[in-house]
Amino acid sequence: MVGIRWWHSPALLVVFFVIPFFLLIAAATRPVIENAPVLASHQVYLTGILLLKALFLLGGLALGAHCTGTVQPKKVLRLENTSLDFLFWFTFLAYAIWFGPLLASNPGLILATLSGATGAMYEVRSTAQNISGVTTLSQFGIAYAVVYGIKVFQDREKLPRRYTIMLAVILGLGLFRAATFSERIAIIEVVVPFFAIYVSSRKPGATPVDFVLKFFPFFLYAVAPLFFALFEYLRSWLNYYAAIYDTFPHFIADRFALYYVTSLNNICALIQLSPNPTFRGEWTLNWLYRFPIIGSLMPSSSLRGEDVWFSQFLTIYASPEYNNTTGVLTVAYDWGMVLGMALIFVYGALAGLAFASFRSGRGAGRYFYPIFLYSLLEILRIGYIYDGRAISAMIGLIIVALIWYKRSPRVSVGGSVR
């Protein structure tokens, strides 16, 4: 691809963005934790040893991606347009089943949420609760955006206009979910992978826009607080925090920082305060624990199960509102450093294979690559690749790849990392 940037490479992204960002978070952990007005405990659990372990694991992630990042698939895999119809209608159906009854019975509650009425958003969350196996299908929207993006920007296909309209509907549904259900990630996880595909088709230049695209991860996190503020104003500022913080900008800066430093501090606390490794995979196999039928067969968990233990821990040592853990040290908590290193190396290797497929325009891995890329951008906040959100999108891609594939003799010219 003519527009492959350095950050498209999983190995380079980890080395030149994720690791520096991690060090920044580690440096900010103590002052942010100790001065936060909303945490039950101001104790910092990050130690020098845990810092080194995290850096070691991140190094293994980058090494895995580097080892497989040049493997070139031999076959070109394209998908029929029918794959887009399948992904769209299942996404739409999932949203209809999830939010349809609430929209039909109490549209005023939705309007109240959008207008920032106190408590309205939390009432929506309690009314339109997740439905196992149904709401999961809403993640097929990510798969739709990926397939659409690859068809249009990588394979240069001319799609009927209705597929663009379907993409707009999926983005609108994600925006609706973000605004009314307090899930900002519902729109980000669609837009960022799609944008990464678009950038790969754009030839680098010397314009200000190209400069931004060259350093996209840094600009993404520079403007993230603005996007964050847009939704937090309705979600928590009007409902609660206006009485705690002196100004809205102060609240946003503190809350944005807390999401990252508490993700690191939470897992460090778990490692120090609870027996580990557990060898049950509560964090790294989180998607499997939530999987219909299979999840009930997984080993019992004192941590994840009904989240009782973890909720109690957060109430005592942190805050139930900041309940994330990074996707780095969680592998050590679940499996220990040796197996954890092996797991995160495989994670990197799979990301590298997907990147090589994407860069060459060949193989099935190119459809999975944007999801791996997004997971690396989020790895310091959450273990996105271990979560049902990512796995559900990948299941959608697997289904359409098995059913609606077509092989073409065309071979794309591979791009070089810039």
TrEMBL record:
Keywords: Membrane, Transmembrane, Transmembrane helix. The keyword Transmembrane helix applies. The chain crosses the membrane at residues 12-33, 45-65, 86-104, 131-150, 162-179, 185-201, 213-231, 335-355, 367-384, 390-405. It comes from the Bacteria. This is Oligosaccharide repeat unit polymerase. It comes from Novosphingobium clariflavum.
